[in-house]
């Protein structure tokens, strides 16, 4: 089957998806909206195109799209998949009802409680005074703005003072506008984080490679949370025993709960895990591919992406085939990110010195007069494949030596926990 495909989004995740689709013999015409300076290599990007849901739906109809892959969460929460499906266009992404699993953290937590999905104990507040009073009984907590905050509405608070400041910042100072009108205060879980990405349809699901994101901006997992400074796949943090628990105690109940709520969920379910003494608990749900986990996973995927899309649409279990390798993805960011940073810096990439097995996925880049410039906080993803974690890490950082732009910043310890596991197992 030859398919016309539209990818919605303009970050590193979307560049990786476009790259994977471009390698499929079943892809006919490939478009991306709004795209970025690197995606232009492989997909057609309409110029000066408004990235509104109505405009995208109209474009998909006019271009006879067979599939639409929605990268970011906001269009899904606003009903993009609903509008496309109403026209008979297949979408990898849930409708607005299913998107509430990410669009409203209070909905997600109540959903988990209702269907006995393991997660941290929590309380929900819409009044800052009540929230501050509650904190008098707590010490170490995680505070989350209820709505979508581009991955930045979560505060891990090790003291009452930090928690109090977080409540005031979210609810009183309105840092995240209406997304912070309601907050969730939950007990802090201790353990190791991991990400599980599931291809979900009403009666079937397929689990992708477990991965691990590095959310903190500085080495040693310190500093404020970002959208992700790097990732690797697969991760030994999720062994076969833990994966069985994830399927039995999390994926199964979620799938059953969606059916009971009469939510026709066809798309990606991202499960952010904390593994506590061998027991996986849910930190959060996302309703789309993770970023940067996607950039670490897709280079290892051997299954044709059009077959993947078709299987989810037909509510079939997708059989996923993977390379027997490890992939490490390091994010190159603008200095100052996730705070204020400058854009418009010229990017230099010397591909002649790149090791084999390295992909450069573009995130915050812009093409001007044939030259590449920075246009965002996270600029490039350097994804390197190796036969083991040590080789993949070495290749990634070797490749970074061939890339430069003013005030370029990156973490130098991506994959450090897996390296320790590998060295202990030798």
Q: How does this structure look, described?
A:
The protein is an alpha+beta fold. The chain has four domains: about 5-95, Rossmann fold, CATH 3.40.50; about 125-180, Dna Ligase, domain 1; about 190-315, 2-Layer Sandwich (D-amino Acid Aminotransferase, Chain A, domain 1), CATH 3.30.470; about 325-425, Alpha-Beta Complex (Glycinamide Ribonucleotide Synthetase, Chain A, domain 4), CATH 3.90.600. About 30% of the residues lie in helices and about 30% in strands. It contains 13 helices and 24 strands. The strands form seven sheets. Strands 11, 14, 17, 19, 22 and 24 form a six-stranded antiparallel sheet that branches. The mean pLDDT is about 95.
Count of domain modules: 4
The rounded Rg comes to: 21 Å
Query: What is the CATH topology of the largest domain?
Result: D-amino Acid Aminotransferase, Chain A, domain 1
Instruction: Please state the overall shape, judged from the principal axes of the Cα atoms.
Output: globular
